Structure formats: structure tokens, C-alpha cells
Amino acid sequence: MKMESLAVPVLILLAVVTGVILAYRAFRTRKSTRGTAPAQAAASSQELARAAAGRLSEDQHRRLYALIAQGQAMAAIKLYYEATGEGLRASRDAVGAMAAHPQPYRAQEPVQVPEEDDDEPERFPYRYRAIASKGDVTREVSSNMLNDEIFGRIRTLARSGETEAAATALTRHSDISLKQAREFIALLDD
């Protein structure tokens, strides 16, 4: 008989504890979503849209906005993902921002190749190793005419589509052939 009389208060106590836990979680969730002001969120969304549009070529920009206009969000995200190589979440956010804040196409300024003198490249007292790989293919260039700054310029040229200029610069600062340099640069452009 005593067990039956305790069952009801125990059930009530469990219901109250469960209610308090659920209310606490709801309060915490609501509090964490208040972190950014709407004006800040809109400004960062506009900046994201501007930056995302700047990563696309004119054709990619036009195709992406055509897909957005047709309501094909998944296809637009896939196009952005393939064009930029960013992650899926970043691609989804970028396409969402571009849909919310349409951006005109702005031609990317051509990369200025610094004019180098015709003299022999500087030789450093150490050998610099540059490694590029894609899948199972790995290439290495080792030279005492390379350093972080020079290799950074070569990588920037490769990623901006100036692969021939990058390959030429790499052959100038190393002892590899133009063919080997092109193979190496092909691994960098992603």
C-alpha cells in the first residue's frame, strides 16, 4: 500500500524535473540566437554576397543567377561549389547571400605580374622545397632560387588562371623544364 501512495508523487516529481530541463534548454537556445543584431547579420550577408560574386567568372556569375531566378537552389549551390572549390556549407551560405543581395558582375582585375629584371635570379644559401599533389600524383621542385615569397607569387598566378606565366616563372627559379613546370602548376590550380 505504501508503494502505491508514493507512485503518484514520484511521477509528478519526474514530470516537473522534465519540464524544468526542457524550459532551460529552450531558454539557452533562444539566448544563443540573439547573439547578432539584425543589422550586423544583414551587413555580413551583403559582404558575403559581394565576396562570393567576386570569385566567379562572368559566365559562372550569369549561370548562377539564372539558376537562382529559376528557383533551382541546389543546382546553383552545386555550380558555386564546383566553380570555387569551397565546402558545401560555405557554398550554400554564399548562394543564399547572393540570392538575398543580388550582385552585379565586376570584372576581375588582371593580375599584375611584377616585372623582373633579365638578370639571373637570386640564389639563396638554402634549398627550398615546393610540393604539390592531387590524388595519387605528387610533384616536388627543389631549388636554391626559390623562397616563400617567390613561390607565393607563382601559386597566385596559377590560381588566377595565369598557368603559363606561373610555369615560366617556376622554370626561371628552378632547374626544371617547362613541361615539368606545367605538370607541377597543373597540381596547384585547385
Please provide a written account of the structure.
This is Ribosomal protein L7/L12. The protein has 190 residues and is mainly alpha-helical. The protein is built from 8 helices and 2 strands. Among the domains are: 40-100, no CATH class; 128-188, no CATH class. It has helices at residues 2-32, 38-54, 58-69, 73-84, 88-100, 148-159, 163-172, 178-188; strands at residues 128-134, 137-143. A hairpin with a 2-residue loop joins β1 and β2 (137-143). It is elongated, with a radius of gyration of 28 Å.
| Count, helices | 8
Please tally the β strands and state the result: 2
Q: What's the arrangement of strands in the largest beta sheet?
A: 1-2
C-alpha end-to-end distance: 76 Å
Q: From the helix content, strand content and strand pairing, which structural class follows?
A: mainly alpha
Strand content: 5-15%
| Radius of gyration from the alpha-carbon trace, in angstroms | 28 Å
Instruction: Please provide the ordered H/E string of secondary-structure elements.
Output: HHHHHEEHHH
What's the rounded overall pLDDT mean? 82
Main sheet characteristics: 2 strands, antiparallel
Morphology: elongated
